Amino acid sequence: MTTSDGRAGRELGVGGADLVRDLAQVRDYAVDPKRKFYSATHEEISAGLTTDIYFVRTMEILESLGRAGAPVVAEVFTSRDGMMAGNDEALSLLRDRGVEVWVLPEGERFDDHEVVMRLSGPYRNFGPCETPLLGILASTSAWATAAAECREAAGEKPFICFGARHLHPAVAPVMEKAAIVGGADGASCILAAKLAKVQPSGTIPHAAMLIAGDTLLVAETYDKIMPRDAPRTILIDTFHDEAEETLRLARALGKRLGGVRLDTPGERGGVTPQLVREIRARLDQESFQHVRIFVSGGLDPERIRVLGLAGADAFGVGSYISRARPIDMTMDLKVVDGQPIAKRGRIPGITPAPRLIRVL
Question: Which domains does the chain have, with CATH numbers?
């Protein structure tokens, strides 16, 4: 087998009965010493190489007992309330494995301990998928949930996810796509936006001003060379007082200036409601009502609410979404050989879950 990044590996494959099933396969799988990144490839995830080793031991035991193909029903339930996300990747992991799947639709809210997925089929077909399956749902649902909290705080005002810089690049696109599921109006990460079938959002960072030496020079050059549909939203906190810099740009660009972005660092107190109110008032006094105020930098739902009331028109949210605590997901076997069963403390048999939809 040759992986997507050109590495050779033992034939574990991508679909169907291709999961790693014995310790010999684990022992023989070789990692290329020239591998550039530690993140798992699509092939490695599909083959079960990101699963916990005890599932491989389980398969060997069950195969020895002639029980690996036992028909089972498994349920996935949550550790707290949140928003469902990650369905596409979860189904990609399970597709063509001879398993039936019911799942809560993406974007739906779920309650604490609610069943969000049910799987039915021979255990060997999906057992080793448990670790990556739960990981997909735990992380993506958490990111979507955090974004949904920002969506509620922002109301009708747009917000963009700026969280890619806070995560390993292998998972940053997953996070920002999940944020769009949760209600973000866009994502700054190019791949995340493309996966969500939207165009990436964002203009320019402080680096452009620092290297060019003047915010107005950068703004005028941006206006001159960028496509007409590119938003004319310019950072105004690099060199001078934010209110003065805003008016300087507005006077020079006039109607062409779509907005200004405030990203005042914490060392200077961050973006405050007083600063937003002052800039809004000064813009309005000079008839620049069309210029919107975009704020970013350490935003969370509470700050979004406060700054929105002060006059902010749009928000860039990063670490609040990217650092969201995963929503632990648990998979339990509830039926084996057609008979209700469960570990102690759990109720045997299928849990009523009328909101689940058959997808495989």
Answer: 1-50 (no CATH), 142-322 (3.20.20.70)
